[in-house]
Amino acid sequence: MYVERVSRLVGAVVWSVGPSRDGAGRVLPDGCMDLLWNDGALLVAGPDTHAHLTGHAPGAWAGVRFAPGTAPGLLGVPAHELTNRRVDLADLWPAAEVRRLGAVVDAAADPADGLEEAALRIAADVPAPDPRLSRLVGALAAGRPVAATADELGIGARQLHRRSRTAFGYGPKTLGRVLRLQRALALARAGVPFADTAARSGFADQAHLARDVKELAGLPLRELLAA
């Protein structure tokens, strides 16, 4: 069973899921990156541009899902280097540092709690992220156009694109699409009719919503909600 809670790390979520018979699942793009634990191994999930199918990975999992744009500063890796990838933390960090964090997780009664403590220790040693990143996420999540958002932030289009790739793994237009998908799914899951969901989420019409959901999530909206 999947369980999540708000983390003590600002903007983050702590989650866990127990072993299932086949381990199969579908992770939808959300603009975030995760620090993962799976049966003693530490991994990093990069930002996705499409649904990630978990296949048949065995064992229990735990994770800390960082707020969009914050993980690269914590991990010291530009997000675009990890887009659509899952990698061992040992491929990004020195082995001694990975062992130190692993010991923090192993010492906890619950791996999810230990992973959160490890994330808090990482965050204590790095500067706070650029506040313009959270403003960008907030504007795009609210449906603001990219060009207008860039003007409001006082950032040129090219600089905004570079910063977005570093922080989110892709440009602001893709980030806007991902956040619009999440808005639509929240409404549809709450029972809002699909046509109203499309209008309220910023899609041109229901057909536009259907195309984006199929492209980003890999399933038609009705099947996605049923799954």
TrEMBL record:
Annotated HTH araC/xylS-type domain residues: 130-227
Species of provenance: Streptomyces griseoviridis
InterPro entries according to UniProt: AraC_XylS_family_regulators (IPR050204), DUF6597 (IPR046532), HTH_AraC (IPR018060), HTH_AraC-typ_CS (IPR018062)
Record keywords: DNA-binding, Transcription, Transcription regulation
Superkingdom assignment: Bacteria
Protein name: AraC family transcriptional regulator
One GO MF term: DNA-binding transcription factor activity
Ribonucleoprotein in keyword set: no
PANTHER family: BLL1074 PROTEIN, HTH-TYPE TRANSCRIPTIONAL ACTIVATOR RHAS-RELATED
Record SMART domains: HTH_ARAC
